[in-house]
Structures are given as C-alpha cells and as structure tokens.
C-alpha cells in the first residue's frame, strides 16, 4: 500500500462530503484546479463560489471552467465571503500561500484567512467539510500557519471535529491538511 | 460524511498494507483485539507474532484467538522482537500506554518502545506499515509521546513516509496515529 498524499486525501474528503446540488466555496481559486473539481462534484444543480484577489487567477480559473455554468467567480477577498454567499454550503476548500506560477510576494494572510474560515464554518451544513491545505515554507507562511492552528485547535469539540493530516519527516515544509467537520449546528 | 476516527483509520491502513500470507507483529497484544484482526487479515498461511509483558494480556489474547493457528504469543518485551522474529513483516501495530481494564501503573515506556519500533522498521517490507497509536493522557505518557515523535520525525524521507493523523481540538489527550511506510530498503 501507499499512504495517500495530502492533496489526494483532501480530494477524497471533498468527494465524500459534497453531494450533487450542493453549494460549495473555493476560497482560493488560484489556477482553478479545485474550482473545476468542485464544479464536477456539485453538478449542474449545484453551485461553486470561487474567490481570488488576483486577476490572473480569476482569468485562469474562468478559462478552466469555461464549459461549466455552475461557477460564480468573485474577484475579491475571501474575507468577504459572507457578502456573496448566504446559502448553506456542503464544503469549502482553501489552499493557503501564494499562487503557483504567480507573484510569490502576494500571499494569503492570517487576518483575512481566519475571517474566511469563520464565515465558511458559519455557512457549513452538518457533516460538511472545510478543508484547509496549509503551505508554510514561504516568507510569512509560518505566521499564518500558527494563527490558523491556534484558531482551529480552539474550535468547540461538541460542534466540530478538527483533523490534522500531515507527513512529519519531510524537509522544506510540505503542505499539510486541516479538515474541519461540522457535527451539529450549535 | 464523517471523518474517520483514529482507530478505524488505523485498521483501514493495516487492511491495505497486509496481504494474505504475510508475517506481522502486534507489539502490544493487550486484550487481543488487534491480534485477532491481524490473524484474520494474514489468513492461515500467514503468521502473527503478538507480544505483551503482562500475563493477563497474554491470557486474554490467547482466549480471543483460540480458534486461530497462525498466532504466536510471546510473553515478553517488544524490545526483544528481533530475538523472536527474523522474517520480513508486512505490518506492525502498537497501542502505547496501559492495558485497558488492567493495572494502569504498568505502561509502555520510551526506551523499549523505540527499540521495538526500530526493530519493526528493520523487518518491514517495502510498502509495509508500522502503525503506532499514541495515548499520552496518563502519567508518563507525554514523555513517551515526545520521544516517539522526536524519533519518527527524524526518519530519512528517502526511505520512509511518516504520517500523523490526529484530531486536534479535543480535550483529555485522545489517541492519535503515527503511520510509517517503508518506501525502499535503504
């Protein structure tokens, strides 16, 4: 056997959590890979809200999902998710850090990341998942990682399960996953 | 969906790693649950070596696997695995801490635990798994946990993948899993 890597394991959890017809959020559209994956999962009766602050990311994502009519692209901060999404969501996904092949000085930051995660947890259906893939090898990455870990480890255990899935003997700070399942509304 | 708890996830990895006919090790026979599970997985052509230092554990395990002829019970320390097992193994499992329903003052300890893990890693086949379920809520548990985490996080990444699977927002130090896959012989 081979232990599942972080990104395939994240996709597996999203597949298990998302149902056709769900509304879901891609909090970091980036090059659009997760947006496309989610658009396929929710199907034509569902909806994907995909956020990115970078025009290049929105453009790349628009191109990748051009055959889908169930994606709403929002060129803006994921800290304003609650201004665009009011329906319950089945899942949300975040890939923290910088845009691959983009400007590495433009990074997600703790303040807006925590705001976005909080808003997604509020919108989340019971047994839905918020999946956060954390990259911390870049400058500023460890501060964001620490802030996210502090926040998620304090989530009340009666309402949420917070799973960390991480390979711990690797150099160069490879990404790891934090997956949050909502167990009950309050 | 519901995130898999630590013990079912551990069993899933063992199921994926172990093939019929394999030799495997239960490093902490305890009440024999894992020994039984492994005996079923390896089948009549395989073999389970189950270790425990406590006579009560050996007795309970013997009773639980009484219908199986593929289990060798060793009433002794798992620090002496290499005196009893010389064949390659497909998997090994450890449940650290104390014997449930037994004497809680008798606990696994860092020195013998690390010796046992090292010996298992040496015997392990490529793509085999050593699964270590770590309990640290009892007195002495955090020292053992820290020693194990220090050891496994230093394993060379060209030879091993070390996965941590842990729910991180729970009180009372619930158990978590460290799973080590051997990727190549050296």
Give your account of this protein's structure.
The structure is a homodimer of 186-residue chains. Chain A is built from six helices and seven strands, in the order αβαβαβαβαβαββ. The model of chain A has no long low-confidence stretch (mean pLDDT 95). Chain A is of the alpha/beta class and 186 residues long. In chain A, strand 4, helix 5 and strand 5 form a beta-alpha-beta unit. Chain A has one domain: Rossmann fold (3-Layer(aba) Sandwich). Chains A and B meet through helix 1, helix 6, strand 6 and strand 7 of A and helix 1, helix 6, strand 6 and strand 7 of B.
Judged by helices, strands and strand pairing, the structural class of chain A is alpha/beta
Question: Over all CA atoms, what is the radius of gyration of chain A?
Answer: 15 Å
Return the string of H and E elements of chain A: HEHEHEHEHEHEE
Greatest interface: A-B, 30 and 30 residues
Name the poorly predicted regions of chain A. none
Provide the CATH superfamily of chain A: Vaccinia Virus protein VP39
Oligomer: homodimer
Query: Main beta sheet of chain A, described?
Result: 7 strands, mixed
Shape of chain A: globular
- Write the CATH architecture name of chain A: 3-Layer(aba) Sandwich
What is the CATH topology of chain A?
Rossmann fold
So what's the CATH class of chain A?
Answer: Alpha Beta
Strand residues, percent of chain A: 25-35%
Q: Taking all residues together, what is the mean pLDDT of chain A?
A: 95
What's the number of domains of chain A? 1
Strand order of the largest sheet of chain A: 3-2-1-4-5-7-6
Number of helical runs of chain A? Answer: 6
Number of strands of chain A: 7
How far is the N terminus from the C terminus of chain A? Answer: 39 Å
Helical fraction of chain A: 25-40%
